[in-house]
Design brief:
Layout lengths: L1 H15 L8 H11 L4 E10 L11 E7 L3 E9 L7 E7 L2 E5 L1 E2 L4 E2 L2 E6 L3 E9 L5 E12 L1
């Protein structure tokens, strides 16, 4: 009985003194998979950008994707708690913004948004961090449904 109590006490002490370590890309990906819900995983992008220097534009990660016609996709973003940056995703068709997780009018940034692709082709994904802050994030592309 004493051995059990000692083991239990040692275990509780170990948990209480456990240090929090930086989140890895894989941990963020696992969180994003949960945030995406019932959608099917297709691709992920791990983004780590430095803080913008005064007077310069925010650093931006750029990716190109081929998306299918009549398909609904879900973009999910998970930000690392170790950095102050909040990721903003923008989808462009040529030079036209057609989807984002950030509403400029309200200043609100959403963790997911769905995109209904009505035309097959190459789309450009831009990711930067709000206010040019340094950040680490995972953006997850998932398949939702055909329409």
């Amino acid at each position: 009985m004493r051995k059990l109590i000692f083991t239990l006490f040692a275990f509780i002490l170990l948990i209480a003194t456990h240090k929090s370590y930086a989140q890895s890309g894989q941990e963020l990906l696992d969180i994003c998979n949960m945030v995406a819900g019932e959608a099917t995983y297709l691709k992920d992008f791990q983004i780590k950008l430095d803080e913008a220097k005064p007077g310069e534009e925010s650093p931006t990660a750029r990716y190109s994707l081929v998306l299918s016609k009549n398909t609904q996709y879900r973009f999910s973003v998970c930000n690392s708690k170790d950095y102050s940056g909040e990721a903003i995703i923008q989808i462009f068709d040529n030079n036209r913004l057609i989807g984002t997780n950030h509403m400029v009018a309200t200043g609100k940034t959403y963790p997911t948004f769905d995109f209904k692709c009505s035309s097959a082709g190459v789309y450009h994904i831009f990711v930067n961090f709000k206010e040019g802050k340094q950040g680490l994030a995972v953006v997850l592309l998932s398949y939702v449904d055909r329409f």
